[in-house]
Design a protein that fits this description.
The chain is mainly α and 274 residues long. It has helices at residues 3-19, 30-47, 53-72, 79-100, 116-146, 187-217, 222-234, 236-241, 243-273, and strands at 157-162, 165-168, 173-176. The chain has two domains: 3-110; 152-259, no CATH class. β1 (157-162) and β2 form a beta hairpin. The longest helix has 31 residues, at 116-146. Mean pLDDT is 77; it is low at 153-188.
């Protein structure tokens, strides 16, 4: 199997689908087809052969399908299935194209300054970085939504800040607070703090999965227990006061660890093969 072509194709897939900004649900559809065309052209130029269509056409189609279905699954009901399924489908496409069609990297530019082993290793590591952060993030959120353990910040709710006066914050449950005078600060400040907390949690998840991938790729499995235990100690006080939040953190941490373990082991095998 030509690992140089396989790693470069995987890197191209990761960049086009996860390094570029995602399409908003209300935006136009045509940028998705442009994204698919960019990936197809990238793969075709990489092989520098008409036979590269065996890889470029399915890759472009899967790219369009992934980005079209992601906003359609904005309720996250099928988000995990789409993300995992289409990524696995592209991996199978790479395998079949390289092994059955005999494709190889034909564009000489990639070999000017570095060896094939160095290039393959670099592309594999960069692809693992993008897949373990953004792609795994979609899968984790999809599964959490399916089993209904997402925190309240991802639901809609209203807060009554004074008698008979409601302020929509997100949507769903209604928390009635009867006070005189009205509560301060305004509700939008609370919404901003919740959004900030969610963004911070997303970054923590990215870093957590990256650390797991690095440890697994280097064969340091014994360090994983220390990482998970350290996170549990940091969150111990919140676990005692909020059972729902404790379940959310536990399930999310285990899902992140499983995804990162799979990607880390795949990266380890690729690096050993090259």
């Amino acid at each position: 199997m030509n690992l140089l072509l396989a790693t470069q194709a995987l890197f191209a897939w990761a960049v086009v689908n996860y390094a570029l900004p995602e399409r908003d649900e209300r935006s136009e559809v045509w940028p998705i087809f442009v994204r698919g065309a960019v990936l197809g052209l990238w793969l075709l130029v990489m092989t520098y052969s008409i036979s590269g269509l065996w890889l470029a056409v399915p890759g472009a189609a899967l790219c369009v399908a992934l980005n079209l279905c992601r906003p359609a699954a904005s309720d996250k009901k099928w988000l995990a299935e789409w993300e995992a399924g289409l990524n696995i489908a592209f991996l199978l496409t790479i395998y079949l194209s390289v092994t059955k069609s005999g494709l190889s990297v034909g564009f000489p530019f990639f070999r000017l300054a570095f060896s094939a082993r160095q290039i393959a290793s670099a592309h594999a590591m960069l692809a693992a970085l993008l897949l373990s952060t953004v792609a795994c993030g979609h899968v984790v959120r999809g599964v959490l939504s399916r089993i209904k353990v997402l925190p309240r910040e991802e639901a809609n709710e209203q807060v009554v800040a004074s008698v008979g006066e409601t302020y929509p914050i997100a949507a769903g449950n209604v928390v009635q607070v009867v006070t005189d005078p009205p509560l301060t600060p305004p509700p939008h400040d609370n919404a901003e703090s919740r959004e900030k907390e969610l963004n911070l949690g997303r970054i923590i998840g990215y870093l957590e999965r990256l650390i797991v991938v690095v440890l697994v790729a280097n064969g340091r499995f014994e360090s994983l227990g220390f990482l998970l235990a350290a996170k549990g100690l940091v969150r111990a006080k919140e676990h005692d006061t909020d059972r729902d939040f404790a379940e959310y953190v536990l399930v999310g941490t285990l899902l992140s660890a499983v995804c990162a373990l799979l990607i880390g082991e795949g990266l380890r095998q690729l690096l050993r093969a090259v």
